[in-house]
């Protein structure tokens, strides 16, 4: 059996009466890229700092390649870290910033210079070696911080929201570079982010954290397509949360109309549930398709449209029960249908794509 690179067991952390982390257990395999994803204050950065030894857990254990590092200081743990602020030395140029950690007898001047040159080439900053942080763009500073974190060839790379200070275009570009760099180096990586798009595009696995607890661990596809809780469904991507009452297996009452859903099990009559349906799983039609579908097709009126490039996000109102839904429609289809405010349409709600969450907010 393969030993996990990192093994966290029942990590707890309190600040006064506030539980920052509660019974967090997680295993990370060698070479994985894992994202800790969650809203501000959920505990993801605290967990990263505990792994690094910058914060001490109240109880629980941490093993790195089978070695207990639970109480070791940061200097005794094998990791490199990039902070949100990059924390570069303003009085040192790029070369000296990258080579700062390469001290001691193991690093002769020649060996150190070769290592720094290799790293600068790796992150595309060879031409900027003599420049100072103040002369660099935010994206270039992020690359310097990344090169410095990799200088000692750590087994673990920790990234604390390293792209959050950048503008959207640079952030998207550096996401691609970061993923390619990880694929080349194969270093086990943990990244903290509150940006779902970042997590979905970068991670091998995502750890969704909420109020100090792990809600779900899975691949980006699993997290998005098979959320295990109403929180995950709502936090990762857009969703339509429909408050419904159970009628019979596969049948729910949604404010006076009956919805059919394939993913459900027998419950008690009248028990409350949440049905979650992604906007892209709501279909808009020019004509009534109820005669072609088993159910879930209703007349609606367009309330609002938001053009988002490849698709339009359309809010529709259902007169039959007074509720509204968000639907994502390809821009070409929206143009073909002539979608405008007050336009009459028909909506189809996919029975097989609905996620059902019971009273305990977990998937039923």
CA radius of gyration: 25 Å
> How would you sum up the major sheet?
6 strands, mixed
What's the order of the H and E elements? EEEHEEEHHHEHEHEEHHEEEEEEEEHEE
Q: Give the helix/strand class.
A: alpha+beta
The N- to C-terminal Cα distance equals 33 Å
In short:
The chain is an alpha+beta fold. It has helices at 44-52, 94-98, 109-122, 138-150, 168-185, 196-202, 220-225, 230-235, 331-337; strands spanning 6-15, 18-28, 33-37, 59-64, 67-68, 80-82, 156-160, 188-193, 205-210, 213-218, 240-248, 251-254, 257-260, 272-277, 282-285, 297-307, 311-318, 323-330, 344-349, 355-357. It has a 6-stranded mixed β-sheet with strand order 6-7-8-3-9-10, sandwiched between helices. Strands 13-12-11-14-20 form a 5-stranded antiparallel β-sheet. A 5-stranded antiparallel β-sheet has the order 15-19-16-17-18.
């Amino acid at each position: 059996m393969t030993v996990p690179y990192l093994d966290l067991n029942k990590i707890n952390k309190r600040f006064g009466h506030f539980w920052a982390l509660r019974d967090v257990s997680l295993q990370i395999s060698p070479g994985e890229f894992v994202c800790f994803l969650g809203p501000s204050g959920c505990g993801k950065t605290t967990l990263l700092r505990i792994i690094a030894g910058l914060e001490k857990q109240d109880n629980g254990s941490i093993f790195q390649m089978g070695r207990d590092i639970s109480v070791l200081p940061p200097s005794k743990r094998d990791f490199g870290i990039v902070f949100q602020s990059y924390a570069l030395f303003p009085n040192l140029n790029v070369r000296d910033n990258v080579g700062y950690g390469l001290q001691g007898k193991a690093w002769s001047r020649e060996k150190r210079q070769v290592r720094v040159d290799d790293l600068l080439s790796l992150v595309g900053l060879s031409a900027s070696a003599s420049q100072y942080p103040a002369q660099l763009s935010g994206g270039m500073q992020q690359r310097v911080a990344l090169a410095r974190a990799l200088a000692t060839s750590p087994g673990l790379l920790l990234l604390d929201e390293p792209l959050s200070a950048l503008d959207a275009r640079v952030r998207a570009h550096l996401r691609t570079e970061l993923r390619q760099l990880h694929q080349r180096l194969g270093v086990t990586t943990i990244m903290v982010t509150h940006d779902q798009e970042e997590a979905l595009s970068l991670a091998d696995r995502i750890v969704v954290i909420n109020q100090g607890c792990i809600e779900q661990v899975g691949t980006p596809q699993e997290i998005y397509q098979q959320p295990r809780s109403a929180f995950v469904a709502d936090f990762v991507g857009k969703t339509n949360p429909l408050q419904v009452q159970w009628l019979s297996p596969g049948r729910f009452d949604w404010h006076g109309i009956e919805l059919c859903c394939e993913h459900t099990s027998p419950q008690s009559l009248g028990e409350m549930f949440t049905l979650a349906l992604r906007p892209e799983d709501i279909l808009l039609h020019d004509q009534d398709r109820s005669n072609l579908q088993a159910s879930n097709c209703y007349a609606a009126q367009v309330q609002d449209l938001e053009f988002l490039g490849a698709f339009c996000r359309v809010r529709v109102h259902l007169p039959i029960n007074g509720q509204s839904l968000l639907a994502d429609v390809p821009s070409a289809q929206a143009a073909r249908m002539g979608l405008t405010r007050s336009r009459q349409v028909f909506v189809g709600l996919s029975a097989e794509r609905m996620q059902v969450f019971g009273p305990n907010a977990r998937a039923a």
